[in-house]
Amino acid sequence: MKTDRHVLVAATDVELLAAVGRAIHGLNNISVEIARADGGGGLWSKAARAAAVIVEVDGRSNGATTLVRRLSGSARDGGLIVAARDADGESVRALFRAGATDVLTGPFTPDIVQASLSEMLQDELESAEAEGRVISVIKGSGGAGATTFALNLAALLAKGDEKRHRPARSAAVLDLDLQFGDTDLALDLLPRATVIDVLQAGDRVDPRFLEGVMTEHPSGLKLLAPPPTIVPLDALNANFAVDLVEHASRGFQRTIVDLPAAWTDWTFPVLSRSDLVVMIAAPTVAGAVGARRMIEGLKAAGVQTPVFLVLNRLHGLVEAFDKPSRIGRNLAMGVDAALRFDAAAPKAADRGQLVVEAFAGAQLSKDLRACAAKLEGRLEALSAGAAFAELAA
Ligand SMILES: Nc1ncnc2c1ncn2[C@@H]1O[C@H](COP(=O)(O)OP(=O)(O)OP(=O)(O)O)[C@@H](O)[C@H]1O
Ligand SMILES: [Mg+2]
């Protein structure tokens, strides 16, 4: 994730801070840094690094225009929003003359702040959109449901969700399960090219090449298919695997990576490059032990990517209610989503269909839709920056 797309906020007004928090929450891939409004604490150099600056001034004080003049010299071109709660017409004009790109007077609402920021950050937001998000899916043991999750998630993201105001995203699935990958079967596709073609192309692989060897599914998702035969896991190496993920993130808004059950030399680099690691575990003692092992493995390898924990195959409502909190307590982390056991899953897989498409009304499909919405929310919250998550709540 890039770190230079941040907004510097030099303010103490509680209404303004809350409005910025909510406004940022609605913008993708923008984080926030809070600074003192009096010019201290390295304000000028911080302003120079920020994509936009929001500064609070007392519009009636003489010092306001001086501060704005200095800041407009430091801030990037056209990136200075001045919040002056009680400024009258004349003060507002003076602030514009001093170099403000926009002047906001009270009351400070999220809509007003967001409109001002969106205009200012248009280029930043467009380039943020151009760089997609990578979600890697791992499991504690084979058969946990990682592939089912990866494919259904990709199809849901590709479709979007009008009811939940979630836009459709271009979605890719990279099946890097080089030995037992079965996504092509699960989707009933006959790929003309697979990951083997990517391995053979070596340095020639770029985002366009990658897209060219992917197979489109009617849901809209595009699949980098697994090899037709067993390939040694070290056919991939860390640099190549990370480059591959990077290329996919340029071409698609969401890239979902299905990884082998065994961890390889390139597993940690791929997980580190991801924006989110989805961990699939069974709601059993063995599942919890496997999840703990994965959490410890990530920690030991220094992977800092946030984890989204999904329990799969819960039996009935009572278990769905009770087990996630027990397992979460045991692992000292929250369970982010629970998927119920549902015979629709293998039935759909046997037909080469996605459960969310073949059995849209099934319990598992409902759980998957809720989970997709939560995961998208998590991606947005991550980019909005932790500093404002609480204010925005
Ligand atoms: N919630 C569920 N309820 C019932 N069956 C499920 C559920 N989720 C997955 N399954 C079934 O479990 C089997 C294994 O699922 P899947 O292939 O997704 O797991 P995996 O973690 O990718 O396994 P592998 O280690 O083989 O890659 C499939 O038959 C699938 O249909
Ligand atoms: Mg699998």
Give structural notes.
With about 400 residues, this protein is α/β, with parallel strands linked by helices. It has 2 domains: about 5-125, Rossmann fold (3-Layer(aba) Sandwich); about 130-380, P-loop containing nucleotide triphosphate hydrolases (Rossmann fold). Helices cover about 45% and strands about 15% of the residues. The chain contains 18 helices and 13 strands. It has helices spanning about 15-25, 45-50, 65-75, 90-100, 110-120, 120-130, 145-160, 185, 195-200, 205-210, 240-250, 265-275, 285-300, 315-330, 345-350, 355-360, 365-385, 385-390, and strands at about 5-10, 30-35, 50-55, 80-85, 100-105, 135-140, 170-175, 215, 220-225, 255-260, 275-280, 305-315, 335-340. The strands form 2 sheets. An 8-stranded mixed beta sheet has the order 8-9-7-10-6-11-12-13, with helices on both faces. Helix 3 (about 65-75) links the parallel strand 3 (about 50-55) and strand 4 (about 80-85). Helix 7 (about 145-160) crosses helix 17 and helix 11 (about 240-250) packs parallel to helix 12 (about 265-275). It is elongated. It starts with 5 loop residues before the first strand and ends with a helix. About 45% of the residues are buried. Bound molecules: adenosine-5'-triphosphate (ATP) and magnesium ion (MG). The site of magnesium ion (MG) has 4 residues, from helix 7.
